[in-house]
Amino acid sequence: MRIGELAKKTGVPARMLRYYEEQGLMSPRRLDNGYRVYDDYLVDRVRKIRGLVDSGIPTRIVADILPCLDKPQTIVVNDPDPELRELLAHERDRMSVKIDFLIQNRDAITRYIDALDQATAARQEYRAS
After folding, report:
1. Structurally, how many domains does the chain consist of?
2. Which residues fall within 8 angstroms of residue 36, CB to CB, at 6 or more apart?
3. Is the pTM of this model over 0.90?
């Protein structure tokens, strides 16, 4: 697929997709004429990249994390960086707070939908009688 189609499928602008390529986060194939061709598996990869970037993780760290998301594997760290560990722990905790908030909002919306459904059913019963 071309970059426009990938942008449409992922909601990520073509300019950002080119940036991801520059950062080594994804590698499209090149045709003889130099055009980029994006394989279907890159749709999922771009969504993962976007999710990590949107959660506040810098692209330089996303590059290290991506292989862990592609398939289960043993993670080997050769040069542990305490600052990176602190950053990742902070981002993980921030994500947990967001997830909890989203769960609360989802549950509230579900309760509201249930209340709407009950009100609609009661109104239909009233009209039927």
Report:
1. 2
2. 2, 3, 21, 28, 29, 30
3. no
Taking only the tens place, the pLDDT of each residue in 13-34 is: 999 999 999 999 998 998 899 8
Residue with tokens 């279907």: 40
Instruction: Give yes or no for a contact between 34 and 70, defined as CB atoms under 8 angstroms apart.
Output: no
d(CA 51, CA 54): 5
One-letter amino acid identity for 27? Answer: S
- The rounded distance, in Å, linking the Cα atoms of 112 and 36 is 47
Residue 14 CB neighbours (<10 A): 15
Q: Residue 84 is encoded by which pair of tokens?
A: 């990176």
Q: Are residues 52 and 14 in the same domain?
A: yes
Q: What residue numbers bound the domain in which 49 lies?
A: 1-74
Alpha-carbon distances of 26 from 38, 59, 87, rounded to whole Å: 9, 12, 23
Please answer whether residues 48 and 66 qualify as being in contact, where contact means their C-beta atoms are separated by less than 8 angstroms.
yes
Q: What is the DSSP letter of 37?
A: E
Q: Which residues of 78-94 are buried (b: 16+ CB within 10 A; e: fewer)?
A: eeeeeeeeeeeeebeee
